[in-house]
Amino acid sequence: MARQAVGPILRGDDLRLGSVLGLSVSRTTAQIAVACAILPMVAVTLILALTGDHLQRPVAAGLYWSYLVAAPMAIGLVWWIRRPASRFGLLLIAFGVLVWVTSWQASGTPILFDVGVLVEAPIWLFTIYLFLAFPMGSVEPRAARWLLTVMGIGGLALFCAWAFFSPVIAGGGPLTRCAPNCPDNVLQIGSDPTVARVAGDAETYVALALAAAVFFVYLARLLSASRPQRRALISVAVTSLMFLPAYFVFNFAAWILKVDDLGTLDALAWGIVATRILLPLGFLVALLRAELFASRVLGTLLGNLAARPTPGGWRDTIADVLDDDRFELGFHDPATGRFRDAAGDEVAPPPRGGQRAWVPVGRDGPPVAAMVVDETLMEDPELVRAAAAATLLAVEHEALEGELQASRVRIVEAGNEERRRIERDLHDSAQQRLVALRIRLGQVAEQLDGSRDRAMIEQLGGEVDQVIGELRGFAQGVYPHVLGQSGLGPALEAVALRSAMRVTVRDDGLGRYSEALETSVYFCCTECLQNAAKHAGPDAAVTIRLAERGGDVTFAVADDGVGFDPATVNGGAGLTNLADRVAAMGGTLTIDSAPGRGTHVAGVIPGAGSCAPSPAAIIPPWSSSVPGTPL
């Protein structure tokens, strides 16, 4: 069934055992109890094996069973701690407990010995179940589930019939042989040799058929799996596809072909022992590989964030690192409450029962994005967390950058507004009063008869005219009136006409833009002109170029003066002002100069003056997941 959230992966505080024990214990308490039980169980296993007098190889049997008790339980405990929502931790612990019961075959007490033998059949079926259920926790498809159920029930029934009608029973492994005799079968309810023989032979055929069927089902599953599924399966597949043939060959040779060469049978039997020892390690390797892969994925994603990918590019990056070609990434659209991809198409939760899973991405508030991933990836919570965390970080980073950018633009606009106020006050107050004073001085001069007094008044009038001119120039420098009226090109041409240098303005059809953008470009260009006037030399000529490229406004100021070496010149106030003005609009500034070949200053301001992040931002242009939105 398709998952609808990562909640089950990320949460799970209690292990509820009320249905079994009538109580609830915390998960941590249960895990501590399991950890404390491993050593006593291993000790009991070793004591039974070393003190029994009927096993052919007691030391090897004790070590073998001790390993198959401790390893699955320890690995299951690691699974349980690392992935509390996965049932595989508890399944592996249960497997270890069953092996511990099987080790009772080492006991000389008949009832314990018989119970140990009887548990061999459930362990065999449980092993098959672990193969088929990994990593989802349930056997899929339905045909495999029916295969395991029908053949498992049939095999158990035949095994029990054999056990209950045989005077002596023993395990089928090389380490469970008795020498000279096994304890009596106290579970025997009848003494019909025919029933025991027929049931035993039939159970062997069922077990062999099940082993062969599971081998080919698992092999077909591995070959037809998606890349994420194959990556999850491969570690367990290697060990299971080694164990099943070894099991089949030994039992086929021993019970079907009736091979009587003990050397051959021992070699085949030890093959089963060796491959069964590897079985728990497959689950441990699967967990370690998943966590290492998730770490690499997170590192790759965080590294790619530095390149400021587009929303579509970010989707492709995650799909690539997850090995999921059908991966979908949607960003929250507050206008509709839905999720849409980079192209604006809706990304909806997949239908239940499919092979896709829905993963919301958020922090404490509503999700800001959502992912649709391969269902198998939900069994790798570290991997899903890595992709979700990187996506959340990307959205938050762009939101904060957008807030910073908007704040910078607001500062620029506030500065421009203050410039306009100063220019307006100078024009409406001081400049008008000086003009009125100049008129009054002219009137006074006309009324004076003495030439000396008239000359003095006219001289004062000339000085007032000079002050008015200087004040007008200062007001234009604070905020050029022509910039607001006519735009960048005419405003810079007016500056060029007043400049003492040879200045050429080349306007490639630049239109009108936001006031903040036009003001920033204007003062960057005038700052460059001032720097050229100071440092380029008296004969230098300056060229200003204005253009729009792909929605970005570009400007360049180049002179043919003496130039300088940027490596040996610290950035002064002029260069700092240039960089700050361009950065405030989210743009970039480059300075190219060398002694003897002039200076070239170029800037690019993105988005035609928009205060939004650049088009490379991870947040799509239609999304309003901006600062202040709960994440």
Automatic annotation (TrEMBL):
MF GO annotations: ATP binding; phosphorelay sensor kinase activity; protein dimerization activity
Gene3D superfamilies (alphabetical): 1.20.5.1930, Histidine kinase-like ATPase, C-terminal domain
Residue ranges crossing the lipid bilayer per the database entry: 32-51, 63-81, 88-105, 111-134, 146-165, 202-220, 232-256, 268-288
CDD domains given in the database record: HATPase_UhpB-NarQ-NarX-like (cd16917)
Enzyme nomenclature, EC number: 2.7.13.3
InterPro entries to which the protein is assigned, alphabetical: HATPase_C_sf, HATPase_dom, His_kinase_dom, Sensor_HK_TwoCompSys, Sig_transdc_His_kin_sub3_dim/P
Signal peptide: none
Superkingdom, taxonomy of origin: Bacteria
Residue ranges of every copy of the Histidine kinase domain listed in the record: 529-609
SMART domains associated with the record: HATPase_c
Stated name of the protein: histidine kinase
Source organism of this protein record: Capillimicrobium parvum
